[in-house]
């Protein structure tokens, strides 16, 4: 079935929309799996805890490899079997997060991160990636109003979040066929409408391609 990933800087609102998208696609009759990274599988959730724990002090490469290890576990155990069984998979963050956060903002190098991810992840790539566009300043203001505690990555300084945003802009320009941008500053309902439009387009394209064969 179809694999959709949601990306954006912290505070972009993608997690709220992810839940609403799951409900609306379920109502339309799709079998839907909503999952997230890092995590989405018992061992991957343990790795999530290790990465985001304030006590952890991974080197930049260790952090990168932990995210990718969690992803491999999640992909092989959960995502690939779900796609094979005809499920529409919506994943809150995936490989582009590692390219933007570790590759660009941590300065590992996007090309090196891509190389490792290509080896590890193989051919399973998202059919559609939706980027929730909001400036780092606006996102930061939202995070301040949020009730839950910030994690180790969220508490990074503003120049880190600016670099993450910049990393995403590079990815968007390099993968314009796959990554589509929605204006995340709009109301929740307006953002959801933009997202549903993109998802339905991708599903229709897939059906048309199948029928043309
Ligand atoms: P979340 O808040 O969206 O659940 O993600 C947890 C944090 O991990 C968030 O600050 C983004 C960060 N992150 C990376 O730095 N690299 C990655 O590959 C992923 C998936 C998340």
UniProtKB/TrEMBL annotation:
UniProt cross-references to InterPro entries, sorted A to Z: P-loop_NTPase, Thymidylate_kin-like_dom, Thymidylate_kin_CS, Thymidylate_kinase
Family: Belongs to the thymidylate kinase family.
Domain Thymidylate kinase-like: 6-194
GO MF annotations in UniProt: ATP binding; dTMP kinase activity
GO biological process terms on file: dTDP biosynthetic process; dTTP biosynthetic process; dUDP biosynthetic process
PANTHER family according to UniProt: THYMIDYLATE KINASE (PTHR10344), UMP-CMP KINASE 2, MITOCHONDRIAL (PTHR10344:SF4)
Residue sites binding ATP per the record: 8-15
Enzyme class: transferase
Native source species: Spiroplasma clarkii
Known catalytic reactions: dTMP + ATP = dTDP + ADP
HAMAP family listed in its UniProt record: Thymidylate_kinase
Any Pfam family the entry gives: Thymidylate_kin
Record-listed E.C. numbers: 2.7.4.9
Protein name per its UniProtKB record: Thymidylate kinase
